Amino acid sequence: MAKNIQRPQLKFKDRIDNSSTPFIPIIKRKPNALRPLEINDPSTRSHPENLQVPSVIADFVHQERIKGLDGPAMNSTAHPYRHELEVFEPSLNQFKAWKEQLYEEFDKTSFTFVETTDQLHELSQHLSTVTEFAVDLEVYNNTLNV
Predict the structure, then answer these.
(1) 59 CB-side CA count, 13 A
(2) Are 116 and 124 a contacting pair, CB within 8 Å?
(3) How many whole angstroms separate alpha carbon 83 and alpha carbon 87?
(4) Inter-residue contact 22 to 76 (CB < 8 Å)
(5) How many CB atoms lie within 10 A of CB 39?
(6) I want to staple 19 with a disulfide (CB 3.0 to 4.6 A). Which of 35, 59, 65, 146 is the partner?
(7) What's the pTM value of the predicted model, to 2 decimals?
(8) Torsion sign over Cα 40, 43, 49, 52
(9) How far apart are CA 63 and CA 128, in angstroms?
C-alpha cells in the first residue's frame, strides 16, 4: 500500500481493539432482536482487562488470567446477536434465482414524489405488501452536470 495514502481506520470514531482480550460489544440497543440485549457490567475485580489501561497491559492481564485453563480460552461476553445468528434459517424464497429486472430510463419511469405524511403512510402500506424493494442511495451533484 502506498505510504502517502492515509488509512481510513484512522478516522474511525471508535478505536479498533485487535488484542486478544475478550470481546465486549459496544452496542446499547439491539434492533430486530429475538432476545433482548444482555447488558454486561463486568466487574474490574474479576475482569481486570476491562480497566482503562493501554491495550498491551490489558492483553497481558488477560493472558495471565487464562493461563492454566483447560482447552482454548473463551470470551467472557458472547456476540450480542449470537442467538439470532444460531436460529436464523433463510426462507426458500431467498435461495430462488430471479431474473434480473433492469430499470427503465428516467423519463419512461413513473414515480411519485412523497411530500406529505399521508403519502408516506401510503408508501409504507404499499411496501409492507412486497417481499423486496430497491432504494437508490447514490448522491448526484446536478450543479456540476455530472
Answers:
(1) 7
(2) no
(3) 6
(4) yes
(5) 9
(6) 59
(7) 0.45
(8) positive
(9) 50
Instruction: Please give the Cα distance from 129 to 105 (Å, whole number).
Output: 25
Distance between CA 42 and CA 25 in Å, rounded?
12
Provide the residue count of the chain: 146
Give which of 70, 6, 77 is closest to 40, Cα–Cα: 77
| All cell numbers assigned to 135 | 432504494
DSSP at 142:
G
pLDDT digits (tens, 9 = 90+) for 107-116: 998 888 899 9
Contacts of 62 (CB under 8 A, 6+ apart): 19, 20, 21, 22, 49
- In single-letter form, the type of residue at position 113 comes to F
Query: 49-108: per-residue pLDDT in tens?
Result: 455 667 677 777 667 666 655 544 444 567 889 899 999 999 998 899 988 888 889 899
